[in-house]
Every structure is written in C-alpha cells, then in structure tokens.
Write a structure and sequence with these properties.
By secondary structure, the protein is α+β, with helices and mostly antiparallel strands. It contains 16 helices and 18 strands.
C-alpha cells in the first residue's frame, strides 16, 4: 500500500500557495457577481471570464488522466467539472466529490480607503478583495490537494471537482447539474466542501451544522395616501408602531429570543459537547471578534459556549430591509400609508422552513392592531444542515492532518449561515461523509467590506484535504 510523505505534502502545498497569488488576484479583479445580483450576467460575461481563468489554470496542471470541462445548461450559470482518475490500486475506492463556487457577492460599502472589492491587494498573509476566500480559492485548493497526494507518493480515489456559479444566489442552478452529471459524480463516499468558515486560523475547523433560513416581507397599511403627520397623527395609527407590536409577537425585544416554537430544536448532546470543546479551546472564536461598537455588549454576555450555540443552533431574527420609509434627508413630516419590513429569520438545522414561514404568517397577520391591513409574503426558505456522525477513519485522518499542518487538534463548530446545497446533498447522499471546511476565519468578512483570503490557512487546508484524500483511498 502506498504511503503519503507528509513532508512532501508540506513542501508541495507551500510551493502551490506561493505561486497562487497572481491567479487569485486576477480572479479577485473580475466582478463575477452571482446571478441574483446581476440579472445580465450572461451578457456581462464576468462569470465566463472567471470560468476561463480557472479552467485554464486547471488545464495547465499536470495531473495524469485529468479532464476539465465546462457545462452549460440552458439559462443556467456554467459549472466547471474536473475529473481525476483514482491512483493505481485505489480504483475500487468510492469517489470523492470536491465542491466550490466561483460566483461572488456584490461589492458592499465600507471598504478601507486603499482597498476595494475588485482591487486585489496583498498585505502580509492576507490577500484582500471580493471572492478570494469566498470561494475563488476552492478550485485551486482542490486540484492542489490532488497534486500534492500524487507528488507525495500517496493514493486517492477517483475525484470529481465541481465548481458552480450560482451559490451566492442560493444555488438555484446546482440541482439540475447534479442531476445531469449524476453518472460522473456517482455515489461519493466523501464530499469535501471548501466554502465554509473557521473560528480561528490555528485549527482545522469542521463545520458540522448550518442554519437554514425563513424570509418574508411584512407590510402594514393604515391609510390610502400620505397625510400631514401634524394634522392626522394621533388619529391615524402609525404603521411603524403597528410593526413594532407585530414583531413583539415573534421576537422578545428585550433579549432577542425568537418566540415561534416551530423555529426551535433540541441541540444533540454530542453537538453540544463538541461546541463546548471548541469554546474551551478558542472561546467564541470568530464570533467573539465581531467589531462591536465600543460599549456594545453581546446578546449572550461573556459565555463563549452560549455565543456558539446562539449563532448555530438557535433561531434569530434580523430586519434586513424596508420599503416605505424615505431616507432621513428627504423625510418630511408625513404619516406614511404603508411600511414593509423584510424579515430574515435564521433557523437551526432540522427545522422545516415552510413550517416556520406558515407560523410567522399566522402570528403576524392574526388580529392586527387597530385592524390595520397586514400581509406577510414569503421570501422563501432554506433548510439548514447537520452532518452525519463522522466515521472513525475520517475523524482519525482529520485529527492527524490538523496536528501535522496546524499543530493543534481539529475542532468542530457550526456555521450560522446557510449553504443551500448542503441540505440537498445531505438528502441525496445519505450514506456519504462530509468534510465541510474553509478559510473564512476572524475578520475575513465574506459578503462584507475588506474580505480577505488568509493565505497560510488556505495552504494548510489544502494540505489537510490531501491527507484526507489519501485516507479515503485506504480500505475502511
Ligand atoms: Zn461561498
């Protein structure tokens, strides 16, 4: 049986990452917005430029037998697929699917003066710019890990690297591709998802749960046209006050506790224990480093385990947008006819988003104050995800890889956000193991301003994936 020379994996991945900055910078410079943020994406061609950049890099890798193809279903964003045959002797091992995405979040405001979303900038260990960490590095890391296994004398099963183009819009295009490419993908023994986060940069972090989402627009209408607030205020009920009262039905405004019982689940004891291990070692990690305004206290006080639980296994409401309220500079003394709030409710794994949306609608629209006209229109939902228990072979490989490349144990935590396709893959491949990891550690700020890719973590994650691929080729 082949053995993997970890010092060569170290060297190989270091050399890879030393050489990646130029191509990652080129990628960052492309405003390859996800289709949800650029309805003209096909005509604008940015996604295609990202596809071209990544595929030319992939094609130039010298991996024997590798194929690189671009798939384009009608009306859908393109998908890059690389297929790498198993190393000799590992042909019988079931395949591994490695996932990433190349579409990006929009610009966002608040970038540091010398930084910008489409302006790659290397500063120490950080490569700033939109999409480097979320999730442009994934294709390079996936192929780089496979190369490292081969260079280090190791083995790997057949590998399928799939890089999609619609993740940041909720992966609307992915299911059709998974269907169309079902034969190539086969039934993976392991899915490696390189699109997740890290609570710090000192450990290999395994994401074992994701929250889902239940969204909708809440509209309150009180009068048929705008009125002088001096002339009618006190007689006509204010739409905003009614919204406040309605929101009290679904969220305790004192402590932020969501009052919709359908949105709660019991945290599995083994999950609670794993989160406690993580909290003991790193505190609240990335969450604890949120850039709170001076004087602002976290909702969960100073208990790190509470912070981890609150952001992964509990529901939480955010009002993310509004219609009807003019900007302050243009706001006259007007009693507005109607106001709409866009509600975004994060829901724990295993909670049915449709059930929650129905519960929200019932709670918000029943018996409205002052008989106001209240509507709640669903903005769609997404399931969260909880990993199946980690198989012993994978756990051993992950712990060994984290010890070797991070000098510290691998730790588990949950992500508070949603990776929409994970629920789909979990349902489609119930017997499959998952390695969900990534480089989105403290301050890396995916989706926000000043996003950066932490290069040493990218390197270590690549090396860890190499070690796991080798383990996947061994009988277990
Ligand atoms: Zn992502």
């Amino acid at each position: 049986m082949s053995s993997l020379d970890l010092s060569i994996v170290d060297q190989q991945t270091t050399a890879l990452w030393d050489g990646l900055v130029p191509v990652l910078s080129e990628y960052i410079a492309i405003p390859a917005l996800s289709p949800g943020f650029d309805s003209d994406w096909a005509a604008n061609g940015h996604l295609d430029r990202a596809v071209d950049l990544i595929t030319s890099w992939c094609r130039a890798r010298s991996i024997p037998g590798k194929t690189v193809s671009v798939h384009r279903l009608e009306g859908a964003t393109p998908v890059i697929l690389c297929e790498i045959p198993a190393t000799a002797g590992a042909e019988d091992a079931p395949p591994v699917l490695l996932y990433g995405h190349l579409d990006k979040q929009p610009e966002m405001e608040g970038w540091r003066d010398d930084l910008g979303p489409w302006k790659p900038m290397l500063e120490g260990d950080r490569l700033y710019g939109r999409g480097g960490a979320d999730d442009g590095y994934s294709a390079f890391a996936a192929l780089g890990a496979i190369e490292a296994v081969q260079a280090a004398g190791g083995a790997h099963p057949r590998c399928v690297v799939l890089i999609e183009g619609s993740e940041e819009s909720g992966s609307p295009d992915l299911p059709a591709y998974i269907e169309a490419l079902a034969e190539v993908i086969g039934t993976p023994q392991l899915i490696v998802c390189l699109d997740s986060g890290a609570a710090d940069y000192e450990h290999l972090w395994l994401t074992t749960s994701l929250r889902g989402m239940a969204a909708g627009n809440l509209t309150v209408r009180v009068v048929e046209e705008g009125l002088h607030s001096g002339g009618y205020g006190g007689f006509v009920p204010d739409a905003f006050r009614i919204l406040r009262r309605l929101l009290e039905r679904i969220e305790d405004s004192v402590d932020g506790r969501v009052l919709v019982s359908e949105a709660w689940v019991e945290v599995p004891p083994e999950t609670q224990a794993a989160l406690a291990r993580a909290a003991d070692r790193v505190g609240a990690g990335r969450v604890g480093e949120a850039p709170l305004t001076p004087g602002v206290d976290p909702v969960t006080g100073d208990d790190p385990l509470e912070a981890l639980l609150a952001t992964t296994w509990r529901p939480q409401l955010t009002v993310v947008g509004q219609d009807g309220l003019p900007p302050t500079a243009r706001a006259g003394n007007v009693l507005r006819p109607e106001t709409t709030l866009k509600l975004s409710l994060r829901i724990p794994p295993k909670v049915d988003p449709d059930v929650v949306i129905a519960a929200l609608e019932l709670a918000l629209t029943t018996d409205p104050p002052h008989g106001a006209q209240v509507t709640f229109s669903s903005g769609g939902g997404a399931w969260g995800w909880a990993a199946p228990p980690t198989a012993p072979w994978l756990n051993d490989a992950l712990q060994a890889a984290s010890d070797r490349f991070f000098g510290a144990p691998a730790l588990e935590f949950g992500e508070g956000g949603t990776i929409p396709f994970m629920a789909m893959l979990g349902q489609r491949f119930p017997g499959t193991q998952f390695l969900v990891t990534g480089v989105l550690g403290p301050h890396s700020n995916a989706h926000g301003p000043n996003e950066f890719l932490h290069l040493p973590t990218g390197r270590k994650v690549t090396a860890a994936v190499a070690a796991v691929l080798h383990a996947a080729a061994q009988p277990h």
